[in-house]
Amino acid sequence: MRTSGVPETDVRRRIATDMADDVPWNRVLNSICTEPHPLGVEMAAAAAHTNLGDVRIFRGTKRIERKVVQLLLDLLGHPGGGSGSLVSGGTEANLIAMLVARETARARGTLTDRPEVVVSSTVHFSFTKVFGLLGLTPVVVPVDDDLRLPAAEVARRIGEHTVAVVATAGSSEFGVVDAVDEIGPVVRGRNVHLHVDAATGGFIIPFARELGHDLPQFDFSVDGVDSITIDPHKYGLANVPAGAILFRGAQDAGRFAVDSFFVDTPVHNTLLGTRPGSAAISTYAVLEHLGRDGFCSLTRTNFEVTAHLVAGLRAAGHELAAEPQLNIVVVKMEHAVRISQLLESWGWIVSTSKRFGETLRLVVTRHVTREMVDEFLPVLERARREVAAEAALR
Ligand SMILES: Cc1ncc(COP(=O)(O)O)c(C=O)c1O
């Protein structure tokens, strides 16, 4: 650290210089997080000083966190019941869900010396961190032809060591929604915790279903679902870092409870101690302001833009790796990695899969417009032609 500080104007200039290097949203096609809603940004700035780690001081902010949890439980089919916490994102939410699953098994007396969790081969990599931290062993079930976790196979893989099954509602790579409505019945009654990772799909599927999209029920309306991860900082348009873990059981969020040293300070139910109240405030502002109608309208636009992108890709002769269920489009493409690198050198960010051969993954969310798609498609074709010509010379 420098001995004497620099004037504010210099600090501002230096920060602005580095931040100017960040890629503008209108060139971003790989990110599930998006430009947050302006009201969320404004309210988060107003709450930048708040800390939900000290709820005696920030009791008003804590009240807002509780309201957000109730709003999310209501959105996900459990109005007036359940429990939950706002957390830093999908990873922490999944961690708390698995911890609660393990502790529930312990309380039931069914925890063995080798606790297992049944997951699909496309489960998010956050679970790799979680399983390592919690000493859980994944039992990996290959996805079916539709890239979904097959319920019959889940039923077969549940055994004496199983503490949890994880279904995904909106996979990171493909936006695929597992048939939670089929998985719920096979898990129910087997003393196993069913967690749904809806970090990506939680703010899409309820509204898409309202708009008539053929998507399965994935929330607490499915018997047997015990917990759900949903991320306001993805399709919920709140500021990073805003995730949420929700439980069907009114006491379940409290199963992960760590006491502090101090009298009158409540236990912590989250991994983070000091944590930003601004995330709760931002989420609350966006949920209240947009309401169901606002989210339905955003969802409709996202699907229209997705359809426009798919039509453009098909018109250019591309084949999709899977029919998109949500707003993630995966295109088969020779030399995908090289194309992605070339696009990045031209300022466009897309993603490529390490696991699904030569594919390009494009994510449509709030900042992706029809105009942006129309700008992108010719650039993609130019990149594809240049890389093909490069490859022909080799
Ligand atoms: C399905 C799913 N689960 C979990 C996560 C992890 O969320 P985070 O990066 O907020 O920790 C993601 C992130 O994209 C995701 O798509």
TrEMBL record:
InterPro entries: GrpII_AminoAcid_Decarb, MfnA, PyrdxlP-dep_de-COase, PyrdxlP-dep_Trfase, PyrdxlP-dep_Trfase_major, PyrdxlP-dep_Trfase_small, Pyridoxal-P_BS. Its EC number is 4.1.1.25. It is an enzyme of class 4 (lyase). GO terms for molecular function: tyrosine decarboxylase activity. Keywords: Decarboxylase, Lyase, Pyridoxal phosphate. It comes from the Bacteria. Its cofactor is pyridoxal 5'-phosphate. NCBIfam families: tyr_de_CO2_Arch. Belongs to the group II decarboxylase family. Sphingosine-1-phosphate lyase subfamily. This is Tyrosine decarboxylase MfnA. It comes from Streptomyces spinosisporus.
